[in-house]
Amino acid sequence: MGSPRPCKTLVPSSLLTPADRWKREEYKGEENAILTSFNRNFKARNDANSKTMNFLSSPEIVTAMAFAGRLSFNPMTDSLTDANGKPFKFEPPTGIQLPQNGFTSGDPSYAPSPLPPPQPETPVQISPESTRLEVLEAFPKEFPNSRGMELPPLTTLMRVRGKCTTDHISAAGPWLKFKGHLSNISENTLITAVNDEGGEVNVAFDHNHGSESAKDTIPAVGKRFKARNQPWALVVDDNYGEGSAREHAAMQPRFLGCLLIVARSFARIHETNLKKQGIVPIWFADKSDYGRIDSGDVIETEGLANVLAGDTNAQVTLKVTKKDGSKVEIATRHTLSADQIKWVKAGSALNYIKEQKASASS
Prior knowledge:
It is a single chain. By secondary structure, this protein is α/β, with parallel strands linked by helices. It has two domains: about 15-90, Aconitase, domain 3, CATH 3.30.499; about 155-360, Aconitase, domain 4, CATH 3.20.19. The protein has helices at about 60-70, 165-170, 180-185, 220-225, 250-255, 270-275, 305-310, 340-345, 350-360; strands at about 30-35, 50-55, 80, 85-90, 155-160, 195, 205, 215, 230-235, 260-265, 280-285, 300, 315-320, 325-335. It has a seven-stranded mixed barrel. A two-stranded parallel ribbon has the order 1-2. Strand 13 and strand 14 (about 325-335) form a beta hairpin. The protein is globular, with a radius of gyration of 25 Å. Keywords: Iron, Iron-sulfur, Metal-binding. It holds the Pfam family Aconitase_C. One of its GO terms (molecular function) is metal ion binding. This is Aconitase A/isopropylmalate dehydratase small subunit swivel domain-containing protein.
């Protein structure tokens, strides 16, 4: 079928994975918009141009808009001009959603061969010298502890300023080769985050540093806390964790000892990922309280035990002991559901699943 006008670029979704970008130079630095039918919908994600706005739509609308070349086009009512100068209007696509007689079985040679039943006792051999793979150890259960079903006293690692995407938390690029080695990939944790106390990138302060320098990189201070068995908390700004849904952005802080993240607001998917790894995400009830917690301050929760007992409407208060010994209380809110509470109590969602399977087989 002849097209009414030259079609704008159509990029298959398989070309734009979370680590890929479209080489698109003609609109560099110029405000423009593209439509996609897959979830890469924030500025600069597809072509590295911060002026490119990205809107999500259905494949049918994306195709129609590619022919029209303007966002004001309504394919249900507006016309285009074909190659002969005559008006042309799209017709809404129709068809049955599922075949009435079901799908054909297809070529059996494409079907996977039956696999033997899993044998959990089978050892997985990984070279101890490998820098790309290591055995993933289960995260520890944090409840109960010395404070019962409240979080233990947490040292504040830092206060993150401004935008902090999953790329800031766990950078991609050359780090991707370490995705199977949690110890190594954790060396990139928050390395492009801005410390609100001074405005420097990848800088944190260890206020109990002993013979070591107080100032160090963020992952280095996190590793110090981990070595001292000192669980820690993070204070973050608005929409923390926006971007791709990479699990490592939640796994890495947890691996280094983070148990609580207090935010002005969270990106929805990342907030859920934190809960899956056993980190408690808490929202400031008053966003202006963000600046009241500094690095080195000690945070204790009050009311979390009620939440973990099943009262999802319970309020959690943060009792903060400042470095000078003064104390402040900060009101918060949470979004933990009944199922997510089970993940946190078990130490992670995987821990909870393992517990359920063990219980079912006993």
